[in-house]
Design goal:
InterPro entries: Oxoglu/Fe-dep_dioxygenase_dom, P4HA-like, Pro_4_hyd_alph, Pro_4_hyd_alph_FE2OG_OXY. GO terms for molecular function: iron ion binding; L-ascorbic acid binding; procollagen-proline 4-dioxygenase activity. The chain is of the alpha+beta class and 302 residues long. The protein is 14% helix and 24% strand. The chain has a domain of 203 residues: Sandwich (Jelly Rolls), CATH 2.60.120.620. β10 and β11 form a beta hairpin. The protein is globular and about 45 Å long. The protein binds 2-oxoglutaric acid and fe (ii) ion (FE2).
Length: 302
Amino acid sequence: MAGTTEAFYLHSLSIRSPSLKPTFRTIREDSKLAFQPHTRPLVSEIVTGTHSHEFWRKERTAEEVRAHVQTCLDDITQQTDDDDTRPTAHVVSSEPPLVLIHDFLSTSMCKNLIDTATSTDKMIRSTTGSEQETSTIRTSTTVWLNDEQVPETSRIIAEKISSISGFPANHMENLQVVRYETGQSFKLHTDTIDAYNEMDKRGRVATCLIYLAAPTIGGETLFPDVHADKAIQIRIAPRQGSAIFFWNTHEKPGSPAYDGADMFLNTDLRMRHAGMPVDGGEKWVCNRWVHPVDYGVGVRGL
Ligand SMILES: O=C(O)CCC(=O)C(=O)O
Ligand SMILES: [Fe+2]
C-alpha cells in the first residue's frame, strides 16, 4: 500500500483490512507509581539537547527503550510542574520504537493548553499537509500556540522531548492543539512524507502526541502496522496527560544510516496511525513535531 501522509497523499489512503480479523490491543492505564522526588540538577534554561542521539543508533530491547526514556524523563525537573506525579514510560513497541508515557504533562498544564487554545477564538478546521487542505480525512479543529502564549508549558514539553530525542527545542514546531468533538476523526496517515525532504525544514523525524483531554467513548490512536504480528493492531486509549513518542523515519539519529541533517529521510510506513472517531465527549490532543534541522523558534508549523 502506498504511504499515507499528513500531507498530500491522504486522498488515496484506506485503512488496511487484514485477511485475519485483527486483535485489538488497547493500551490502558497502568497502576500509577508513587511520586519519587527528583534528585538531579534543575534544567533552568530551554534545553539544548541534554542527551545525545546515541541511544537510538541501533535496535533496542523493550526494556532498554523503557529504561532510557524513563531516565530521560527523570532528568527533567518537575519543579514547575505542579502535580506530584512522576512520568512513567511504557514500551508499546521497541522496533519500531513507540513509547507511551503516562503523566507526561500535569493536569493543570493540559488545562492551560486547552484554555489558551479556546481563548484565542482562532480554532479552525484542521488541515493536512503543507498545502493546508481541509477534507474528510481530518475533521477536527486546530490552533497553533507559540512559546509566548504558553511559556512554561511549552518549555516543559520541549525539555522532555529534547531529552528523549536528543534534538534541541529549536528543532521543534510550535504546539499544535487539536480538538475533536463527537464524530470527528483523523484517518490513517503518517506524520512525515518523503517529499518533505525537499523542504528547508525537512521532514518530521519524530512525533510527540500529548492527550490533553480524553473523550468518554472512542478516539483511540490506532497503529495498524507497528506490531510485528500483522494480525495485531495497536490502539492507544487517550488518557489526560499521557503522551506517545515515536520516530517517523527509518533513519534514527545516531544510527549508521543517519548521515546528518542533509540526508534523505525515508518515511517508516509502519508508523501509520489514525485518530479513531470520537463517539462521546471531546478529545483534545497536542502535537509537537521534531525536525532534523534548526526549525527556528516561533515558527508556526510546516
Ligand atoms: O488524535 C489522534 O489520536 C492522532 C492525531 C494525529 O495523528 C495527528 O494529529 O497527527
Ligand atoms: Fe499523526
